[in-house]
Design a protein that fits this description.
By secondary structure, the protein is mainly alpha-helical. It is built from 19 helices and 13 strands. The chain binds one RNA strand through α4, β6, α6, β13 and α10. Catalyzes the attachment of glutamate to tRNA(Glu) in a two-step reaction: glutamate is first activated by ATP to form Glu-AMP and then transferred to the acceptor end of tRNA(Glu).
RNA sequence: GGUCCGUUCGUCUAGGGGUUAGGACAGUAGAUUUUCAUUCUACCAACAGGGGUUCGAUUCCCCUACGGACUACCA
């Protein structure tokens, strides 16, 4: 019988999640949903020195905003709880002991100074790749070189030690990556990685293998930065006797900075000119301890659907011409084979474009609701039907919801000034007189639709011997103050005959003919 | 330095032994519009280089170059 598909997103709570992490979570989620499996969230907090308060909550909030649903995790629990590695601490030791018992791991008592000295010695000797490995361990203080009694003595004395994996000297390690195909690495290029730290916590390498095994993970989808240590993980599965149920690996291409000079990192903060975080993050400067704020996509006005659609396409595509995908469509169409191998750069223009598409696709009523709330905050009240008309008129001009409110201002504020360029070119006694007449007739207009207003205007202008092109810009400036904006007839319709007339009269009074 | 991974328009990418190398974003031009924007149309624009294999390579193989990741008692 086929195993149930189980994937995990396993971030370390050392800060907010950046968009690369979100994409990794997304691909995990898409695969899980596509294959009818489960999505787990596991917090990898085995490094107690790098704990950042709030990071864990941030991660969960960010995933929720993105629409990435977790089936098992610290909030929702599950059959393999706890889902926080620090709380699983007692579970790891036995596996390290098992490895020692089977001769695949050993105790090492070297101090940090010992290690520095070793690396300095090897570097001085021009060894191409200084590392703690099958050669150098013979010169170090560990349970392989020390007499058994001394090892026992050291352990009993409480001497600090770590447990290291005994990586074989000559062995080819290979695995079949779902994205990259066969990857082959020689064991001589891997060092004797620390499995258990001297504080009793496992390192990532041990913890992730033990947890993935215990949690019955079937696919490990993670960033390419893990590729070099994947062979080590394969070795661990083998030595622990779990190779037959080892998950399949898929190493995702990295997300690069826009200039392509390296991978995106959370330390980029706002330096790149666009947010790297889904949600705004309030943190502290690592050195000065000063409070810092990094902007987020949510706060910048991005819709989660647009953000996710864009992110999904950074490294994956469906092979069709379709660009717009809902989460359900992404799930339907996703496949790991179509993830590309090469890294992708971030394209600000394209996220904006996606946002515009999703914003315009929203029902006017929904946009109106947003608009109403925003205007209310500014102390402006607006009738529901009017808010909807404004939203419909203005949304083609908006990238972000906030643009709606900006564009709507003209309906609630009479012009404080008039566009000078248009006035100097288009405003003259004839125009002024015609507009005065138009304003006089407007309040009594029978038809106040956009078409009706236009008909009335045309009629008045004809009587004055003017063409519409000669006055329209002037009229726009008289009504709104600006040279550009949405359709003028619709603006006047929404404003209503009375308000429009008064605005025109005010302009005529203010502007010397 | 060592190990590993990668390389199609400016960007995201499709394609794949014989194609006018396709799409999207951006850019440019035109049309529409009373304006800006929208919309529509068109244009611009790519297989890193060198060797093989082959009747034929952008596609398969090798090398080079370039880029990136990793190289901690961090994940």
């Amino acid at each position: 019988m086929e195993r149930e598909v189980r994937v995990r997103f396993a971030p370390s709570p050392t800060g907010p999640l950046h968009i690369g992490g979100v994409r990794t979570a997304l691909y995990n989620y898409l695969l899980a949903r596509k294959l009818g499996g489960k999505m787990l969230l596991r917090i990898e907090d085995t490094d107690q020195n790098r704990f950042v308060p709030g990071a864990e909550q941030y991660i969960m909030d960010a995933l929720r905003w993105c629409g990435i649903e977790i089936d098992e995790g610290i909030e929702q629990g599950g059959p393999h709880a706890p889902y926080r590695q620090s709380e699983r601490k007692p579970m790891y030791r036995q596996y390290a002991d098992q490895l020692i018992r089977d001769g695949h791991a050993y105790y090492a008592f070297d101090t940090p100074e010992d290690l520095d000295a070793m690396r300095a010695r090897l570097t001085a000797a021009k060894v191409p790749n200084p590392q703690y490995n099958s050669i150098t361990r013979a010169q170090m203080r560990n349970s392989l070189t020390l007499p058994a009694e001394e090892v026992t003595q050291l352990l009993e004395n409480g001497t600090p030690y770590v447990i290291r994996l005994k990586v074989p000297r000559k062995e080819e390690i290979r695995f079949n990556d779902l994205i990259r195909g066969w990857v082959v690495v020689h064991s001589s290029s891997i060092d004797d990685k620390v499995l258990m730290k001297s504080d009793g916590m496992p390192t990532y390498h041990l913890a992730n293998i033990v947890d993935d095994h215990l949690m019955e993970i079937t696919h490990v989808i993670r960033g390419e930065e893990w590729l070099p240590s994947a062979p080590l993980h394969v070795l661990l599965y083998r030595y622990l006797g779990w190779e037959s149920t080892m998950p399949q690996f898929a190493h995702l291409p990295l997300l690069l900075k826009p200039d392509g000079t390296g991978k995106l990192s959370k330390r980029d903060g706002d330096k790149l000119g666009f947010p790297v975080f889904p949600l705004e993050f309030h943190g502290k400067d690592a050195e000065t301890g000063e409070p810092t704020v990094s902007s987020g996509y949510r706060e910048s006005g991005y819709l989660p659907e647009a953000f996710i659609n864009f992110l999904a396409f950074l490294g994956w595509n469906p092979g069709t011409q379709q660009e717009l995908f809902t989460m359900d469509e992404l799930i339907e169409n996703f496949s790991i084979e179509r993830v590309s191998k090469s890294p992708a750069r971030f394209d600000q223009n394209k996220v904006r474009w996606y946002n515009e598409q999703y914003l315009r696709a929203k029902p006017d009523a929904e946009l109106a609701q947003y608009l109403t709330e925003e205007l209310n905050q500014q102390g402006i009240t607006v009738p529901a039907d009017q808010a909807e008309q404004i939203a419909a008129l203005v949304k083609e001009r908006a990238t972000f919801p906030a643009d709606l409110a900006k564009e709507a201002q003209l309906f609630f504020q009479r012009p404080a000034s008039y566009d000078e360029q248009v006035i100097s070119k288009k405003w003259n006694p004839q125009v002024s007189a015609a507009l005065t007449e138009f304003a006089a007739q407007l309040p009594a207009a029978a038809d106040t639709s956009a078409e009706g207003i236009k008909a009335l205007l045309t009629q008045v202008l004809e009587a004055q011997g003017l063409k519409i092109g000669q006055v329209l810009q002037a009229l726009r400036v008289a009504v709104t103050g600006h040279a550009a904006g949405p359709d003028l007839m619709h603006i006047m319709r929404i404003l209503g005959p009375q308000e429009t007339a008064e605005r025109i009269q005010a302009a005529v009074a203010a502007l010397p003919a």
